[in-house]
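note to self: the first set is below, dont mix up w the second
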Amino acid sequence: MVLKINVIRTIIVVAVWLALSICCFFKQSDKASESERRYLSQFPEMSVEGILDGTFMTDFEKYTLDQFPMRDTFRTFKAMACYYGFLQKDNNGIYVADGYAAALEYPMNEKMILGATDKMKYLYNKYVEGNCENVYITVIPDKNCFLADKHGYLSMDYAKVFELVKDNTNFAEYIDIVDGVLDVSDYYKTDTHWRQECLVDVANKLSLGMNMGAVTKDKFEVLEADTDFYGVYYGQAALPMKSEKIFYLTNSILEKCEVYNYETDKVTQIYDMDKMNSRDPYEMFLSGAAALLTIENKNATTDKELVVFRDSFGSSIIPLIAEQYTKITLIDTRYIASDLIENYVEFNGQDVLFMYSTILLNNSMTMK
């Protein structure tokens, strides 16, 4: 009886192995993983040198892992087993609490944060000092600021992050956009970023902090983008989570603004509707990642200009204060070297805002 059971088990294992092997052999390679938002490894080029030095087998292993049949299904099974079977608190550094997926951002890397403030000092000394009087800085916390401690996850000391930034950027006036304004409901459940329709109060605090006019909800119309949004954490968590809707705020002034992208040499609108069905629909805000953009507003309520040093969080909040500036220049130093900025931007009396997220500050090696 025992022998019979063992034979049956062996047959099942061999059958499964053969089925998967056949599927692997006939399956066409996928170019990219939509859920993970990354390109997948392709079959490596075979050469005698590659076989002898082991690089072929290393690349082949990556290829087989990326191109495994029903890969996303198995990833989901594995994630569910970790969360619900073995009661792990996270899977691959991603956890879900109160319906929100977030990446563990721990520990706080003081060296990285001070490196970020040093880079901001460099930008100030090179371009701003003596040319622009009104200089401001603000820090955008990630979701862990509101989720981690509450649910027993390790997180950086956000109060210390804010304090480090304030203490090491005395050339700028610090604007606190967190206390009494932000909470976890202002962020997407499956993504890193915050929801634009929830940011009017934040934009108002930012605008008043820069001595500009009030930003109120009655100035905007809330519209729903025609897309089902699955954020970056949806793919990384590999758990079944519901899609979300993207809402955006507009009015007659924003609709007439022109956005110029120095990389593509193209003029678009504040909201790029072609991006709604892209791999990352959040890129509909100012067309996504870009080294250098300008927003021209011929119907501005003032003749003032603004320069913003920012990361991707700025894409959705800057439009909410665009009404008050005739021109806004957005610079993302992850994509343009600091020393090249002078080739494109003249600093002459603009307001200047440094606005970075804690995610970037804690990983500031990406700032050039």
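second set (the one i keep forgetting abt)
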Amino acid sequence: MEKLIYTLVRAGDWQAAEQAGAYHGSADDRRDGFLHFSTAAQLRASAAKHRAGITDLLMVEVAADALAEALKWEPASSGSRPGLFPHLYGALPLGAVTQVVPLSLGDDGLHQFPLSIP
């Protein structure tokens, strides 16, 4: 599977995670019982569907190997998107994070990602 996975986090939630030493997820994550992640190839579509228009969004890049058995590759719960998605069953340890990148919105209203995201 992928070596790097990504989650999209609001800046305030990430600040709380930095103070706590781990990210425990958004309200949606807590409702679903796992933290939602995407591969690089899935990230743009995920942002457009679930985080459209959010201005304080961060892309959190994570080394998948650092998550061990807590990371599961599963189909989207809605079944509407093909492929397997990385789901983390437990808190995200900050030591697994490789970078945090603020995402701005373009004139088209879509998030602007680094060139490494297809």
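remember for set 2: Helices lie at 11-20, 27-32, 40-50.
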